[in-house]
Amino acid sequence: MVFIMYVCLCHGVSDKKIKQLVLEEGLTDIKQIKKCTALGSQCGKCVKMAKEILTETGAIEYSEAS
């Protein structure tokens, strides 16, 4: 069973979508995620969680290493 967690309730952006953008599109920071989704454009409460997902997915470490 696969669970999907909505990170941005205002715009329906899920953790799966963020991970997909990191792994498939090579995005490495919140600014890039915001350009592809509406993440953080309404109330902004989702940005902290999105940053945690980026870290868990390895995007932050990857971008610092390159």
What is the fold's blueprint, element by element?
Layout lengths: L5 E3 L4 E2 H11 L4 H7 L10 H11 L1 H7 L1
Antiparallel strand pairs: 1-2
Helix pairs in contact: 1-3
Please tag this protein with its features.
mainly alpha, 66 residues
What can you tell me about this protein's structure?
With 66 residues, the protein is mainly alpha-helical. The protein has a single domain (6-58), classed as BFD-like [2Fe-2S]-binding domain (Arc Repressor Mutant, subunit A). Helices cover 55% and strands 8% of the residues. The protein is built from four helices and two strands. The protein has a two-stranded antiparallel sheet with strand order 1-2. Helix 1 packs across helix 3 (47-57). The longest helix has 11 residues, at 15-25. It is globular. The relative contact order is 0.21. Mean pLDDT is 88; it is low at 62-66.
Strand fraction equals 5-15%
**H/E series:** EEHHHH
Count every beta strand, where a strand is a DSSP E run of 2 or more residues.
Answer: 2
- The neighbouring-strand order within the major sheet is 1-2
The whole-number mean of residue pLDDT values reads: 88
- The CATH topology label is Arc Repressor Mutant, subunit A
Which regions have little confidence, pLDDT < 50, spanning 5+ residues?
A: 62-66
CATH architecture: Orthogonal Bundle
Domain BFD-like [2Fe-2S]-binding: 6-56
Pfam families: Fer2_BFD (PF04324)
GO molecular function: 2 iron, 2 sulfur cluster binding; metal ion binding
Family: Belongs to the Bfd family.
